[in-house]
Amino acid sequence: MFLRVKFSMLVALYPLLFGAVQAQDSVMMFSIEPRSVMMSPLNFPETDGATADASNFEIKDYLLLSNGLGERRAVVTLINTATGQRILEGRQISARFANGDSRNAIGLSQKFSSQEHLTLNINFGRHIYPIMSISVQTVKQPN
To answer: What percent of the chain has pLDDT over 70?
Structure first.
């Protein structure tokens, strides 16, 4: 009898115990942010936010990610347009948020060979608003 009660209590408590773990996991899990179709470029008022330093990198495409904790990331495909090896640093790529704030990438340092394409999962930290765009300031090399 005691084992049955104990087992039945465990069966009854299972959804409560493990449902909380699943709920917590779903908050931490990243989801893809749909891209809005914009008729014109974003023109937020000037802020003191971060801008991307000039570099030899060009963005080919990106996918925006977020989770219930407010973590913001982007999966970005970049190309090193330089004729030599370059290192992509966090200050060379920035994200613009829906309230106009901008922020550079966190903890980024990635080597690229000449003309190399790489896809990276880039962290932009936590923010209440979603990322609207990702940018670099590409300096073309003279021919």
So the answer is: 70
